[in-house]
Amino acid sequence: MVGGIQYQFLRASPERLPMSTNTSSTVKFKPFDAETAEIYRYRVQAGVNLGSVFVLERWCCPPSLSSGVSDKPWESEIDFLEACGTIEHARESLEAYWQTAIKESDFKFLASIGINSVRLPIGYWILGRDYMTGPFERFKGVYDSAWNQFLSVISMADRFKIGVLVDLHAAPGGQNKQTHCGISTKKAEVLEDANRLRTLKVLKALASALAPINNVIGLELLNEADDDSSLQVSPLQDFYKAACKEIRDASPKINLPIYIGDSWKMESYSRLIASIQDEFNFVVLDTHQYFCHNEDDHKKTAAEHTQNVKGIIKEKIQTNGATIRKNIVVGEWSVVLNSASIGEGHDEKQEMSKFGSVELKTWNDVCPGNYIWNYRSGDDNWYWSFVYCHRTGVLPNRFNNGTLPQPVVLETVSDVLRDIYKKESLQAAQIAHVEYWRTKDVNVQDMLWQYNKGFQRGYDVAVRFLESWASRVGFIDQLANDYTIKFSKEEGQSTKDSWQYDHGFIQGVMAVDQAILRKSSG
Q1: What percent of the chain has pLDDT over 70?
Q2: Is residue 144 a contact partner of residue 129, using CB atoms and an 8 Å limit?
Q3: Nearest to 191 by CA among 236, 221, 160, 223
Q4: DSSP secondary structure code for residue 311 in this structure
């Protein structure tokens, strides 16, 4: 329930299975609160992926899930359903799995080490019988309780102040040829007319249901969608524009962040987002960074991969991010390198750890968020598992870029709440601002009050993030843009005429952020 609204999708009349008895409980959420949602959605995101819960990937699933099915090999969600033998057994197996796959203890653990967000992949079929089309149509009833289980995961995360990025990982028809789309056809048919309409319907339903939930930090339209088009604006990009419109129409009063994957074409999709940000506002580019999958990766040494991340990849993210309000996250990454990259005689764990450390530092330097793949693997006994990497020291014991350590919070708050600190920070920023624009022959003195007002507002907002939630502002330019829009309306002027307010807001946030970073490194 959000603001008095129950979130249970209407179901069609049962066809092959009676309604599951596990659909009666209703998950309740706090009423939407703009300030709470703002912190969840705009702060620095230190995250992990909760993959293979609501869209299965066999290698990420515990052995117990496969032990209850036939010996028939399976890879995708549809394969698993068929391997179960009967739809009754499929429902029983999945309902038992959902109840234990992610528990409150998992979120307690993640929160304790500084992780403040998760990316949660889902398949379109979890929305219920009315949405189960194509190959899933004959399995109606299997997913009756999936929606409630999905909401339960979001609710558990909220109890530990963890945000949830919902990722439509599997769309009708499949957005790529991989089995993580839920099917094994090796076809990408999401853009066929019927599937395109179904996917838009799914996204609109998700936006309507999720936008008012405070700790839902965004909706990702598709995961790793194929885009082989050579057109300047591809059919997939046209689909994304239509999807953005559906999402904004579904929840016009709440600016739910929209995440769009780059389809391994960062420059092209940065241009797309730059072209639609004014219309759809909070749109984020999601890039996935892996260095172990193809032959070119195998030919590079660990040292070469490390230099590539620190150099070319970092610069690429910075350059493209600069065109889209720096709204770019690494939605999937891993410490894993191929054995050929590590080479004979080198310590595998040491090489993975060094490489992962460089990756994490790079993402933290240039992105407001990143999400390692994956929280769990089948046996949690290798480097694809976050749990394994944390347990063995391959990843840091604590992710201080997420929820800040309490001593850092207390010491920084003590500094930034002093009037003299704020005054001196404003004076220094103002002098630099005036001098910079003087060199451009631009007189900013007449409207300098806007810069000052923006600075103070940005400063106060950043203090609120820090003091209330032990968080840094992550999407700084986006937050400045949104506050500038509000300011412009109050002043009765265009946002173009409020540019000094925007610049001041950013510098106000940065003044607090620099204080945080000094304490964190001290």
Answers
A1: 96
A2: yes
A3: 236
A4: I
CATH superfamily of 21-63+102-391: Glycosidases (3.20.20.80)
What string of DSSP letters covers 17-78? SPPPGGG------PPP-HHHHHHHHHB-EEEEE--SSBS--GGGS-HHHHHTS-SS---SHH
Residue 12 DSSP code: P
The answer to whether the CB of 456 falls within 8 A of the CB of 507 is: no
Residue 491: both structure tokens together: 């002043």
Q: Report the chain's terminal Cα–Cα distance, integer Å.
A: 44
Q: Which of 18-22, 65-69, 355-359 has the lowest mean pLDDT?
A: 65-69
The DSSP result for 439-482, as a single string, is: HTT---GGGHHHHHHHHHHHHHHHHHHHHHHS--B-SHHHHHHH
DSSP for 481-497, please give it.
HHHHHHHHHHHTS-GGG
Q: Report pLDDT digits (tens) over 430-486.
A: 999 999 999 999 999 999 999 999 999 999 999 999 999 999 999 999 999 999 999
- H or E element at residue 82: helix 77-83
Which pLDDT belongs to residue 24? Answer: 66
In this predicted structure, the answer to whether residue 356 has a pLDDT above a threshold of 50 is: yes
What SS3 state is found at 371? Answer: strand
Question: What's the confidence (pLDDT) of residue 230?
Answer: 85
Domain ranges of the chain: 21-63+102-391, 406-521
User: pTM for the full model?
Assistant: 0.96
Q: How far apart are CA 30 and CA 36, in angstroms?
A: 11
Q: Which two tokens stand for residue 21?
A: 């008895």
Please check whether residue 453 is in contact with residue 500, taking contact to mean a CB–CB distance below 8 angstroms. Answer: no
More confident residue, 229 or 518: 518
CB 76 within 8 A of CB 179: yes
Rounded percentage of the chain residues whose pLDDT exceeds 90: 90
pLDDT in tens, 364-420: 999 999 999 999 999 999 999 999 999 999 999 999 999 999 999 999 999 999 999
How far is 412 from 208, CA to CA, in rounded Å? 38
Structure letter (DSSP) for residue 15 = S
Angle between helices 314-321 and 266-280 (to 10 degrees): 30
Query: Bridge partners of 328?
Result: 285
Contact 255, 482 (CB under 8 A): yes
| DSSP assigned state of 5 | B
User: What is the pLDDT, as a whole number, of residue 22?
Assistant: 84
Spatial distance between the Cα atoms of 87 and 45, rounded to a whole number of angstroms: 39
> What is the band of 15 on the pLDDT scale with cuts at 50, 70, 90?
low
Query: How many residues are there in the chain?
Result: 522
Looking at the DSSP assignment, which residues form a beta bridge with residue 330? 287, 370
**Residue 516: is it exposed, middle or buried by C-beta count within 10 angstroms (0-12/13-18/19+)?**
buried
Q: Write out 129-197 in H/E/C secondary structure.
A: HHHCCHHHHHHCCCCCCHHHHHHHHHHHHHHCCCEEEEEEEECCCCCCCCHHHCCCCCCCCCCCHHHHH
